[in-house]
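[job 4417] fold queue: 2 targets
>>> target A
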Amino acid sequence: MREIIIEHFERGISATSAAEMAKLAEDSFPIADRVPETAGEAFDWHSWYSAWSGIAGADKAVLAPTHLMVEAADTFEATIPWEQLGQAAVLYALEGEPLAKAGPIRLYVPNGSSKCLNVKSIVKIKLVRRAAAGEQEEASYGFKNTFSAEELRMNK
């Protein structure tokens, strides 16, 4: 089981797996329903979040996040405004098996402001609330760590 870390701005840090996320979301569907010419089984982002937030904090009311931040195994990061996640889907399996490539999960955000439609190999999910969350922003993305050519030569 490849672990996925979930960090919530109020609830702290927990860990889960792709299979546990899919089970919690309940309804899975072919990802091609939302992202044509893409194969695999997915679940709706908001269905998962609603179920997770109900279990994780059933004892108290919690403010909604303003942004979703995801981190990939290769240090790629994306920050997506919450409003853009309406059709977001999480790919978790291909032909009934966990994702061998691009896993443990892959996030697709159709109709968002980012040209980066998806983030593969997600290992960390951050649910954040920013103080100034008035205007809708564009999604941002890139690699967390950057290296110069010299640093890469030295690390061979």
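>>> target B
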Amino acid sequence: MIEVSDVSKHFGGLKAVNHATLTIEKGSITGLIGPNGAGKSTLFNLIAGLYPPTSGQIFLDGEEVTGLKPHELFHKGLLRTFQIAHEFSSMSVLENLMMVPSGQLGENLWNTWFHRKKIREQEEQVRERAEDVIRFLKISHVMHEKAGNLSGGQKKLIELGRTMMVDARIVLLDEVGAGVNRTLLGEIGDAILRLNQERGYTFCMIEHDMDFISRLCNPVVVLAEGTVLMQGTADQVKNDEKVIEAYLGRGLKNKGLMKTGEAA
């Protein structure tokens, strides 16, 4: 679905991404891990259109999308979430979700004067969809709560809910588990799996928790110094000498140090 071909991004003399090539297959949950400073978030930003690459090409379903802006990719079904959730804190969970679909009739002043019935009908459709998303994510108990009052994990669920409001085809998840307690992290993982298995979502996720990665992701791509170091299953990655050395700067004798939860 996504093909990154020999992509580089330079910031002055810094090569944040350096001739990276990888494929995100349709229907997969692909994990992206690597040491701090490996270029993971920069690569996400290139795919999502926040930065243009210095060189290389990016394709979505065979169509070159190199350099397209985030709003253009949004309309093609590619969405990116962020490590820090971006909610409208003074609005309810329901209202946050209802804000997502673009081109709503009520956004046009002319329509508010002359097409009020159509606006009400569309708003009811959007509301029904938002309520369905809330039920799917099992957060009905906070539906009318202000989003700013929610925990970090609940806000991450709202981020997932936003992607469901626009028929996302591929979602880039940036550290969805960061700062989330283990119980809620399990619920977030359940929601990702259900979206993948029941609704056909394709995911690529940056994550630091190898338990979480191992549960959800196949394949796992390892990035180091802006370059793809290897790709394989979670077990293959955790036991690969090159990966261990990239994280620890040591060889096989320290393989036992690469324990669950330390690998990203």
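[job 4417] complete. Note on B: The first strand starts at residue 2 and ends at 11.
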